[in-house]
Structure formats: structure tokens, C-alpha cells
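REVIEWER CHECKLIST
Item 1: Sequence provided? yes
Item 2: Single chain? yes
Item 3: Sequence as submitted:
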Amino acid sequence: MKFKILLLSSFLSISLIESSSADFEDAVKAYDETRYEDAFNEFESLAINGNADAQLRLGKMFLYGNAPEEKKGLVLKNDEYDLINGYIWIEKAAKQGQTEALRELGNNYRWGRTVQTDYLKAIEWYLKAAEQGDAESALAIGSLYKGVEGVPKDYEKVIYWYTKTAEVGYLGHMTSSLLGHIYYDGKETPKDYEEAIKWWGLAAENGHTWSLNKLIFNDFGEYMPESDKFKWLLMSAEQEDYDFAQYRVGTAYYHGLGVLKNYNEAFKYFTLSANQGFAASQVHLGYLYFLGQGTLKDLSKASYWIDMGYSNPDADESDKELAENLWNKEELWKY
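Item 4: Structure as written out by the authors:
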């Protein structure tokens, strides 16, 4: 008999869980379809019965102004929505360990929405969320320890939490870029070019142009071999259609810097850059037409590009010197 009662109790528990899950999914569907009143009623019923996810969603409906008018309570000065009820429900969810709710409570203490700003309490809630793998909370902790919001500066913790965030790919380009800057700058931690290259490289591979430019323009000396320089230049030339990078890639192919010499590829990238008006590429393209390297020799085209490069207001002295030599000594003016 005892076994039958336990079996019945277990069956009822499973049925309730399945029913609760179905009700929650119905509420989410209603919310996504902007049937806010139906969603609110479903979430509220589940939240009252202790469903942490529903408590969070109910709280957010108050926060974002989607709760029915008759359900709204006191609205704080300068706020359009019912933050008080919102955070009451979010706190209930947080106390059950709901990850997003833990982060939202951290936000409440960080920004002082319904409570007095308290950065230490914010960190306390963020830590609980971060320990569950919440990258957004990890990023918030790292930002707070930069020392600009009332928390004592601690760059060891900044690096620790930014690294946690970058490793899971959350806003990878941003956190990786920040780590690259910290290591390259060397103001808050010992300068480390290898780490700077590592993190800027990760950001660049995630499409972060600023980090890619840092890899191209900064001098890393022995820490960046020519082959790696070429890799980043090529990425910029192909992804960003950047005239300077195209020129540098053309130069690398022409002289064999970090890559095997290839006049055809040099011609290709000088052409791309020259067509965007980059003076040095225009002169070098004319030179390739003059020598017949990477293309058929064509003195008429050589003359055209040499003249274009020399007349370009951005041409530097070395470009003009090469152009003058070809124009006068080789008599390209005839063509």
C-alpha cells in the first residue's frame, strides 16, 4: 500500500512539472506574440506557485512596461515603469538561484534603480550569477574593478573576469580588445606583447576592425614574425577593403615579406589599392606595368599610373622620386 502511495505521489509530481512547463511555454508564446495580458496572467499564476523562471519574466514585464495597468503599483519619480514590483519578483527568482535574476539584482544595486547604489552588493549578486557561468555578470564585475564606479581599482580582477568573459565568447570582440589594450598599454599590469597579440588577434578574428588595426600599425618587434604581420594585413585587405592594407599586402608579395614572392598577387593588390586612390600603389602599379611583372608589359598603362601617382596630393617623396625617374629617365612621358 505504501509503495502505491509513493508511486501515485511521484506520478502526480511529474504531471505537475509537465503541466507547469507547458503553462510556462504558453506564457512565453503569448508574450512573443505581444498578448501581454495573457502572458502576464500565466506568468503570475506560475510565479505565485514558486516558478523562478516565471518570477523573472513577471518581474521583467513590470520593468519594461508590459504589465496590465491595473496590476501596476507605485511608479518612481522619473521612471515610466513599475520598477518596484519588477524587482520584488526578480528578487524572489534570484533567491532561488535563477541566473538572469541574480544578474538583474546586481544591475539594480549597481545603478540604484529601486535601492541605494551599493557596488559591493552589486558584485555580490553578479558573483552568484558568474559562478553559474553568466558571462554578462563576469563582464560587469571586471568593469567595476576598473575603479571608475566607486569600487577600489584592482586590475588583477579586471583581467581575471574579462578573461572569463572572452573565453566563453560573450561580446568576444569587445572583451578581447580590452584585454589586448591592457596588456599592450602596460599601465595597470606589466606590458606583455604576446598577450596583447593573442587577445587582439581573437578580437580581429571576430570582426573587430579596431583590434585588427592595432595589429597592423603597432610595432611588436620580435614578438610578431613577418608571416603573422602578413596574415593580419591580408585579413584587413580582404575584409575591410582597406587601401593601405592592400598596398602593404602588394609590397609583401613583391618583396617576399612573410610570404613567398608572387608578382601576380602583388599586381592584384596594388591594382585594388590604386583604384581607391592610394598614391604609393599607383606608382608601384605603374612600375609593374613598366617591367611587365605580374602582368603584360604595357608602357601606356605604366605612363598612366605613374602620372596618377605623381599627381596625387598624398604622394610622399619616395613615391615622387620613383615616378620622376620612370617619367624622365625612361621617357614614359612619350606614352
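Item 5: Key structural point noted by reviewer: The radius of gyration is 31 Å.
Item 6: Recommendation: ____
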